[in-house]
Amino acid sequence: MEPILLYGFPAGSSMGLVAALEWLGKPYRLCRVDMLGEMRDPSYARINPRHETPAFITDDGRVLSETMAIAGWLEARDDERRISFDPRSPEADRMHQLMGFVNTGFTAAFSPLWVALEMETPNPALQSMLREWGREQVIERHDKLEDMLGDGAFLLGERPTLADALLIGIARWLEFHEVADKQRWPGLAALRQRLEEDPAVKYATALENGQMLSGSGACMGHVTLQEVIERYGVEQAEPA
Q1: What is the pLDDT of residues 130-145, one digit of tens each?
Q2: DSSP, residue by residue, 22-87
């Protein structure tokens, strides 16, 4: 069977993994998940008890969660090294370093902003503090990533890799949370523009927005979340 990526909308970090699957070019399927509705339903815990996306059904029917685990699965199957490098090469080490930075500190910097936005009971003073703290953290992480950029068109040279996939799913949160003008970081702004103009990223963004377009041909279609849960979900133990 083809693996299935469960990707979230709106503005899910998993958008970048859809682009990575397109770059990889091997058959896969998708499952579109409403993070404000379906993902919060108790039944979703059968796929991911933490009620998060992305989630991934491997080609042998196992459920994987966490972006880095899914990226590692894709890397191990990238026989033609279209989105990665020889695992013992300096380029692979550099890619893993950048992926780790993006997936940890860079992504986590937005957490206070998400908490402030999604607070069920409004608390203006706390929300204001969270937004101020979050903006400071996001700006600091952008400063550091700007300094880490090389001279290539993408994070690791002249072609996009898994590191770029992880970045592009998160980078647009800068505008979503109105933190700062992206031109404050000219290197990152140019990188983002190149990625946003890439056909795979355009395809992934369109899918996220509900436009069912045809991409490279690697995607074999969408599967409903109900079908994924019923076929691959793990039954949850009843509370004692």
Answers
A1: 999 999 999 999 999 9
A2: HHH-S-EEEEEEETTTGGGSGGGGGT-TT--S-EEE-TTS-EEESHHHHHHHHHHT-TT-SSS--T
Contact 139, 179 (CB under 8 A): yes
In tens, the pLDDT along 114-168 reads 999 999 899 999 999 999 999 999 999 999 999 999 999 999 999 999 999 999 9
Task: In whole angstroms, give the CA distance from residue 170 to residue 195.
Answer: 12
C-alpha angle with apex 188: 179 to 131, nearest 5 degrees? 15
pLDDT tens profile 198-236: 999 999 999 999 897 778 899 999 999 999 999 999 876
Q: Is residue 202 packed enough to be buried (19+ CB in 10 Å), middle (13-18) or exposed (0-12)? A: middle
Report the C-alpha gap between 128 and 75 in whole angstroms.
40
Amino acid in the structure at residue 51? H
- 238 Cβ neighbours under 8 A, 6+ residues apart: none
User: Coil, strand, or helix at residue 170?
Assistant: helix
Statement: the pTM of the whole predicted model exceeds 0.90: yes
Structure token pair of residue 93: 């080490």
Classify each residue of 54-82 as buried b or exposed e, where b means 16 or more C-beta atoms within 10 Å of its C-beta.
bbbbeeeeebbbebeebbbbbbeebeeee
Integer Cα distance of 111 and 162 in angstroms:
22
